[in-house]
Batch of 4 targets.
Target 1
Amino acid sequence: MVSVTEQKHELIEQVRTGAVARVHEMLGKGADANAVDDEGQPVLRIAAVEGEAEIAALLLEKRADFRWQDRQGHAALSPELIGLPTLHRIRQHYHRLGDAGWKRPNLHEEKLRAWAADLDQNGIVHLDGFMDEASLQALQAGFAQFVSRLNKKILRGEGYYRHYDEEEHWWPRDRAYVSNNAFSHSAALARLASRPELLKLVANYLGQWPNITRGIAMRYLPDREKTHDMFGWHHDMEDQRLKMMILLTDVGPDDQYMSYVLGSNRLFHPFEMFLKNPCSLEYCSNQLGEIEIFNTQGRAGDVFVFDSNGAHRGNRRPDAALRDACFVEFSGDRSDVWGGDLPEGALEGLEWPDHDPFEAFIETEKKWDKATARQMPTWVENLPHIDSWLR
């Protein structure tokens, strides 16, 4: 019979040597995630200092106390001691562990199980037949109202792009109409994003019930080929955030579709790529071997769900048709919720499997109403604030 003291000493030793499997096994059998060594250092601090990100994530999953402080007042995961790159790796591993105390939804329907398998394997899935014609027409009507409203602003000399966080804008450089408040002009979009089968699919992938963080509407006018920003291969500087993309216009092989590197959702990107987010095909092939690219071509009403941590890009063509699309973002935590407006009665009568996906969205101050003084992506700014991204 192993004593508590012996178990503690073994856990500390396994943490120091990076024995991930053994630490996982010991925690599963009741080892104390808040054990301290003879100098009073908790195992969470030890794992972080040693650079054992996956072990630190396992300890956080078992509710290790990240608020513990040493005599100098430094918390267990103080970035001053362990550095942002290590903290970034800890967060990536933590978000991909799931929550041991969370019960995954039952995917009874055969189509839902197939969608989940595709999403896990490839990072993107086409939800064939997900939207009906009435919903599509309602989305298209709301989108037309957004474009009409923005066109009136443009005629007055207003509505031009100023910064990424604003509510809506016309971006002359990219010949694009953009709204970060897409739910405001489409109750149909809110109801589509709330469908139980979609939430089950997203929850199964994220490992917890999701929060809806933003609704986006985008129109791309035909334009020359571009390779900057979203039109070059990149990831979205988020880890395990899912996006639902709804085509409101037909998108064929000669049009402005999105391309996605299959399986790149499984990559762990270094911290530097969360400051500047290019994610080249060479980078992907170095880690994945031979790569395969999926293009989101389809008919108006087609729906795709993808992990924006994977490598993807938009494609522009001067002779293409314009492309209209709506996007909804889902995240497992609340560290980057944009907020927004919902039409009155948009969620009336809806029932969710477990968690209200719009709760954080409604409670959060709208990002475009906040001061725009951030020096780096919100995802990076929130990194030292552990409680913002823990479940």
Target 2
Amino acid sequence: MTKKIELTIDKKVFVAELNDSATAKNIFRALPIQAIGSTWGDEIYFGIPAELELENPKEVVEEGDLAYWPPGKAFCIFYGLTPASTDNEIRPASAVNVIGKMKGDISSLKGKSGSVRVVIQSLQSE
């Protein structure tokens, strides 16, 4: 069963759903998470208190995907092209575990740069 979460990114609120992967379940148990994220192209990423392995790794993701990047122990929010992208493919720095998807309009994230305040919390119980 998918889990609904709320992401507040620089005071804008978004809803997302986590998938049923083991990685997503581990991250859900770590909520709430507050962090100062960095941007890398149209990606926001930040370290989280989870040390997880690759699980069904993806080299290319879709706009709105949420992922965990094992080398950086980082939560990633993809909303467009990154410096590693080729053509119109959204590419992480290296393989990630896709853990969920943003819902609704995320176009307001385009153009963010520098530091970004992020709060992630559950919208339901485990």
Target 3
Amino acid sequence: MEHSVGYNGLYPNTVHFHPTLKDTLIYNIGGLLVIEDLHDKHKQEFLRGHDMELSAIAVSSTGRMIASG
């Protein structure tokens, strides 16, 4: 897969700007967590592990830790 596009927007607090990386967005597509550079759609990281849709994402103040559920 080259890159992914999508967001279902069902739950609040599931889209965050990265606190230290400029123009980096953290959001979900179903059960997949996406970390994306807004200027280059090919720069995406995917965090997998959930078998259900994410309803909450929290990002630490440094951006080094992300909690999702």
Target 4
Amino acid sequence: MDCLVKNIVFRVDSSLDIGFGHVMRCLTLAKALVSKHTSILFICRKQEGDLISHIKSKGFRVFELPEINNCDKNLGFLGTSQLQDAKDCYDVLENFVPDLLIVDHYSIDFNWQKQLKNRFKKLMVIDDLGNRRHNPDFILDQNFGSNELKYKSLVPKNCMQLLGPNYALLRDEFLHLRNKSLLRRNEFKLNKILINMGGIDSDNYTYKILALLQNLRNFRKIKIIVAISSKCPNLKQIKKIASINKQILLKVDSNNIAELMFQADIAIGASGSSTWERCCLGLPSIQFILAENQKSLAHALSEINAIKLVYDLKEIPELLKTADNWAHELIQNSINIVDGRGASRVASVLLND
């Protein structure tokens, strides 16, 4: 039977303020969907530090909404009203005629969606927060512990809810490396640490952690891999400390983060979407909460001892010293949470395969 979904539009943004997570998970889903012979378009607003060129480099078309000068931060990450953003999208959707519109944006809700309801056949919302009304046919929330009660009064009764880590949007390379990585975790020895605080790391955690570790004698023989984006505002400072310390290997705009995770014995990172990648590969991790939307996930995984959640950099050295005592339990508790097949599951539901 032919797929009824041919044209798909993603409305998603990225910037130094928003971060990269929304775009990266949309790209993962787009790749799963395009393999089913669909036509895909991204609608993104131009902003400082955006990933528009990265989306294009993956072979997808992007319609660029104009950058807003002196945007109003009180209006959220859109920088403008939902009504204005909907008007900006109106003609694009009329010309492309999407069978499915996918929205991944914390500043878009029911008010935006109703302005465009005649410009798409079906709507999917990707969300984590569960704090505003939507009117979609599908909602995806990949957070651990998410359930229908979370969206009971926020979506229509007939909305199909794709909830939990079974639907986590991970790139293919994590699934491909999963079995190999889990075999590697059978015996734990701390030789390599991966530091990945997200693409932007505006609070400069990466540098602070490196400065802390390089002064500890116990860790001078341990290799430290740092994965960071070229858009990180603190990159110059990080490069400087890496240049004078041979144990630090700096990876800027790495396209093989799955391989870096496979090679590492422990990760230190933010409690964002990379959490699912670490779980899939059984990589034990020490994590920080760097944004409001990371709190529920971090606390839930900490409660079942699938991650080590810390609130102060000073906790890291002691955790690393005692890693032999806790790493194996984290590995066992994390590997069953995410299997790496979430993107294909979501694509099958959307395309009715």
